Amino acid sequence: MTRDVYEYAVIRVVPRVERGEQVNAGVLLYCQPRDYLCARVELDPARLRVLDPSVDVDGVRKALDAYELACGAEAGPLGGESLGGRFRWLTAPRSTIVQAGPVHAGLTADPGTELARLFDKLVRV
């Protein structure tokens, strides 16, 4: 079984950037040898409101959805970029409410299964 290098980042929501508190809301995974880029997101509004009762949940949800859209065939403005270029753009540091954490690497034989494993471990409570 061939295993390939992949990179991933946790997508996090930081409702009050000045406080630095965050909720993990997704995982973005890129595997160049398998030509694979996918994001999986899930927002828990109750957990988010604990950090900021006035957070714009609908706005956060739209920003999270943009990560998933940027990975697909209908990638909008990023559609002309390579998958690697999209991954780098999506993981670039930002000081916004929705942002990607640091990039980490690993080995996998199946990027989709790895994404599901990371999502269950890092996002789901």
Summarize this structure as a short list of keywords or feature phrases.
single chain; 125 residues; alpha+beta; five-stranded antiparallel β-sheet; 4 helices; 5 strands; 34% helix
Largest sheet: 5 strands, antiparallel
End-to-end distance: 31 Å
Label the overall shape: globular
- Name the structural class: alpha+beta
Order of helices and strands: EEEHHHEEH
Report the average pLDDT across residues.
94
Question: What would you note in describing this structure?
Answer:
Strands 1, 2, 3, 4 and 5 form a five-stranded antiparallel sheet that branches. The chain has helices at residues 45-51, 57-71, 83-91, 111-122, and strands at residues 4-13, 23-31, 36-41, 98-100, 104-108. The longest helix has 15 residues, at 57-71. The chain is an alpha+beta fold and 125 residues long. It contains four helices and five strands, in the order E-E-E-H-H-H-E-E-H. It starts with a strand and ends with a helix. The chain is globular and about 45 Å long. It has one domain. A hairpin with a 4-residue loop joins strand 2 and strand 3.
Secondary-structure map with pairings?
Elements: E1 4-13, E2 23-31, E3 36-41, H1 45-51, H2 57-71, H3 83-91, E4 98-100, E5 104-108, H4 111-122
Antiparallel strand pairs: 1-2, 1-4, 1-5, 2-3
Short structural description:
The protein is of the alpha+beta class and 125 residues long. It is built from 4 helices and 5 strands, in the order βββαααββα.
